[in-house]
Amino acid sequence: MRTQIHMCANIAGLLKRPDRELDGLFTCEEGYEVNAKGARQYLCKQLALGHRVIAMGKCDNFDPQEGCLGHPVPDMEMKDTTFERAVCRSLSAPTVEN
């Protein structure tokens, strides 16, 4: 049995990134890309809630302090999770709630 861990991002680290890297990183509930100002507002709100990290996709075992707590996966079902690109935009970013 293996454990699959979903990726997360450090909120304070994202807030240090330039606007050009935050622009379009998130999508709103309606499916539109959020500009850098909206992304910063969302990230600041998460910090105010006491969160340290955000999920970079769907995860039903996520802790906002530690990240994904893991998902047991039988060895035969483990998918190849080779990380091909280190670009956040290529990941499934969380949806920003209005």
Tell me the layout of helices and strands:
Elements (H helix, E strand, L loop, with lengths): L1 E3 L3 E3 H5 L3 H4 L4 E2 L7 H13 L4 E3 L6 E2 L3 E2 L2 E3 L21 E2 L2
Parallel strand pairs: 3-8
Antiparallel strand pairs: 1-7, 2-4, 5-6
Care to describe what's here?
With 98 residues, the chain is an alpha+beta fold. It has one domain. It has three helices and eight strands, in the order ββααβαβββββ. The strands form four sheets. A two-stranded antiparallel ribbon has the order 1-7. A two-stranded antiparallel sheet has the order 2-4. The protein is elongated, with a radius of gyration of 14 Å. Residues 82-93 have low confidence and may be disordered.
Key terms for this structure?
single chain; 98 residues; alpha+beta; two-stranded antiparallel sheet; 3 helices; 8 strands; 20% strand; elongated
**Total DSSP E strands:** 8
Name the overall outline. elongated
Q: What is the residue-mean pLDDT, rounded to a whole number?
A: 82
The portion of residues assigned to helices is: 10-25%
Q: Beta-strand percentage? A: 15-25%
Radius of gyration, Cα only, in angstroms?
14 Å
Let me know the largest β-sheet: 2 strands, antiparallel
What string gives the helices and strands in order?
A: EEHHEHEEEEE
Instruction: Report the oligomer.
Output: single chain
Distance from N terminus to C terminus (CA atoms, Å) equals 39 Å
Taken together, the total number of domains comes to 1
Spans of 5+ residues with little confidence (pLDDT < 50)? 82-93
Count of runs of 4 or more consecutive helical residues: 3
Strand order of the largest sheet: 1-7
Label the structural class.
alpha+beta
